[in-house]
Amino acid sequence: MKLTSVALTGAALGLAHATPVTKRQAISDADILNYALTLEHLEANFYAEGLKNYTHQDFISAGYMDPFYANLQTIASDEQTHVQFLTSALTAAGANPVAACNYSFTSTDVKSFLALGSVLEGVGVSAYLGAAASIMNGTYLTAAASILTVEARHSAYLRSYLGESPVPQPFDDPLNFDEVYTVASPFIASCPSSNGKLPVKAFPSLTPTSSGSVMSGAKVQLMTGSGFNSSMDMSDIFAAFITVTGPVFTPLMSSGGGMFTVTVPSGVAGQSYVVLTMGNTTVTDDTIVAGPAILEVGAMMGGITGGCSKSKTWSMSGSSSMSMMMPTASPSMSMSMSGSSTMPSGSMSSSSMMPSKSPVFNSASGISPSGAISVLMAAVAAFFM
């Protein structure tokens, strides 16, 4: 059968200056594929621009030794392959794939580029996770899930090199369509008019006033953006941290002028999302008044800790994709991931990394990225015959 309902033929998560659509339209599986494609366009263009702006030597000079640059090229190739796959799948289904937009990324050097890349990968994981419950077709669900797992690997790899825990908690946090729209729209400058409008809305922005990781129990100041109704009754406004098991509510202190202070609750870790919402019983698109804001919450003791050291490396022996360095328990020991069931804790600086002896991945079982797309697309095309 052919899919004919394609409401989401708009820009990558939204035009920066578009008027939000306040009434939710029905979202089909084809819409969700286009939603995923908008994310992949954004990520693919982000890596293409970064690898054009920063050379191999720039990464070496910043402390990111080989094979990191080659692995980053693999990540970039993955994102482009996702774009090709989703575009072909939508075309095979008789839908109109969204085109890439013009983007505005804020990185100024290698480290800020990687930091933003890590955030985008985390948002990608949360977006796929949040969309999964809306996918009705099993074939589409499998395709989306296969991309989600790869995005999670990208996220873990970058987090480790930034000195953050690659696995900060046992569950990832889902974001819904409007929440992702709100987070991603600042990176979009303009989109082709042929992309049309999105059946989503943006909430007023919410951003932390300082950068860096925070711990549970810390107080964080948040600033709202334009569109926030500062005249509403603040006595019923709470902060809610989004988790897969439900929102974690915490009291909010207003400083006036759209500024608020919130205490980070226990039970959240890693790349976390907080919204301002009416009441403390549920969080929906109808109750959110600002956000999400993105906070990096430090993992508690006992979790896997990221970071690489020149004398503490693990070689991912037998890896099918990227060569990844991780710290070992002993400063003088190099350990293979093969057969290892646990990873030691300990935080290292990413500025003192040394090359891994692991081979750089080029292709799996001799199948090129374009060949893999052909195999996947053949399966999708067969379904729609």
UniProtKB/TrEMBL annotation:
<keyword id="KW-0732">Signal</keyword>
<feature type="region of interest" description="Disordered">
    <location>
        <begin position="335"/>
        <end position="354"/>
    </location>
</feature>
<dbReference type="InterPro" id="IPR052965">
    <property type="entry name" value="Pigment-catalase-like"/>
</dbReference>
<feature type="signal peptide">
    <location>
        <begin position="1"/>
        <end position="18"/>
    </location>
</feature>
<dbReference type="InterPro" id="IPR012347">
    <property type="entry name" value="Ferritin-like"/>
</dbReference>
<dbReference type="Pfam" id="PF13668">
    <property type="entry name" value="Ferritin_2"/>
</dbReference>
<protein>
    <submittedName>
        <fullName>Uncharacterized protein</fullName>
    </submittedName>
</protein>
<dbReference type="InterPro" id="IPR009078">
    <property type="entry name" value="Ferritin-like_SF"/>
</dbReference>
